[in-house]
Amino acid sequence: MTTLHTMGQQHSRRSWAEPYKIKVVEPLRTTTREERDRAIAEAGWNTFLLHSRDVYIDLLTDSGTSAMSDRQWAGMMLGDEAYAGSVNFYRLEETVQKYYGYKHLVPTHQGRGAENLLSQAAITPGDHVPGNMYFTTTRFHQEKAGATFHDVIIDEAHDTASLHPFKGNIDLDKLQALIDEVGADKIPYVCMAATVNMAGGQPISMENARAVRELTDRHGIKVYLDATRAVENAYFIIEREAGYADKPLAEVLAEFCSYSDGATMSGKKDHLVNIGGWFATNDDELFEEVRNLVVVYEGLHTYGGMAGRDMEAMAIGVEESLDMPYMRSRIGQIQYLGELLERWDIPFVKPVGGHAIFLDARAFYPHLDQEQFPAQTLAANLYADSGIRSMERGIVSAGRDPETGEHRHPKLELTRLTIPRRVYTQAHLDLVAESVKACFDAHDSATGLRLVYEPKYLRFFQARFEPLP
């Protein structure tokens, strides 16, 4: 028996196993501490710049790192690589319409391609876009198109210890205040992410999504969903919200999406593929503009930067993501890692969300100022300890204010341990937990980092650091 802690409550459950068996394996390379110290130094203490061959357990991201199923690999052989009118596009379009409910679909090479198309088509310079906490590429595209981003997430999302079950919720009072301040005509859409990555993979409730829809309808404002992990969000609604415990994932997802006018999607997450995304909308006029823009930025409107085989694998992945035993095991792995860390009082964002454990780097290194990059420091130290690759989600990811040039100082300074789908076993997660504990036990010796190279855009991908003396 194992013990599961959920939202401050404790109950017992039977052990579970992943609902799949391993058919193909990829050998992992182990390294010495000396090799890892050299590798992280050569990477400028930025885990994005490590060579993957030097990584033992790769928890950098869940984007495009999933293991595809036998059905998906078989579907790849059905790829219709016609430049125009690929049969796989129509299969994907039909699948998204069936499960997500949107009228029009435009494929893209990945999620940020869809974000760019929506921003270019819907935003006029001087607009304001409210959202439930920023995401790096999403905000970049919005700002690049001339908008100002406004965080309207509930306050509990900024508190790592809060046990609010839906910390991704939009604060309706904050949203209304922004509408009153700038006017509804200056808000092209509300950007509603499900789940909220930067808050720790925290979900939105169905009640909140419905209330946001009602508020925006009164003002004639559109709602566009970041649906990247909307299936995971649907799982949390089933698990945590009254009235949904016995409903199938597909039904919950369909209702959730019905409170929006369209969505951007990175298929590299919920859809269990290595590349691809899409933009969907119910708006005929906006669809026409995006379908024209995709030819400029991505590819023809029936492939949008994806091969036919990738679209086929994605269509199959949509269906597989809605299998309840799979999703239960998917979230169960993150909960399992959270249980291990909680036994040792390791500070992380609670309750456990979807796709990752987010370590609270401020609590790890209380002696480090935020401008000494505690989350980046923790990611580097975890790699040096065991070869585990994680990533920073704090001041480095937040970037600089475009007006002042000063660092943005987010309330959350987190190091993300992201679990790829259908890739690692619980034994891998045991090792991860032990490495986190080793770093926590040695937290007093951490000295922090300083920036030595900073790219112009999305600096967390390519920035380089060096240890402070």
UniProtKB/TrEMBL annotation:
InterPro entries: ArAA_b-elim_lyase/Thr_aldolase, Beta-eliminating_lyase, PyrdxlP-dep_Trfase, PyrdxlP-dep_Trfase_major, PyrdxlP-dep_Trfase_small, Tryptophanase_CS, Tyr_phenol_ly
Protein name as annotated: Tyrosine phenol-lyase
Cofactor: pyridoxal 5'-phosphate
Annotated positions of the N6-(pyridoxal phosphate)lysine modification: 269
Entry-linked Pfam families: Beta_elim_lyase (PF01212)
Limits of the Aromatic amino acid beta-eliminating lyase/threonine aldolase domain: 58-434
Lineage: Bacteria, Bacillati, Actinomycetota, Actinomycetes, Micrococcales
One GO term (biological process): tyrosine metabolic process
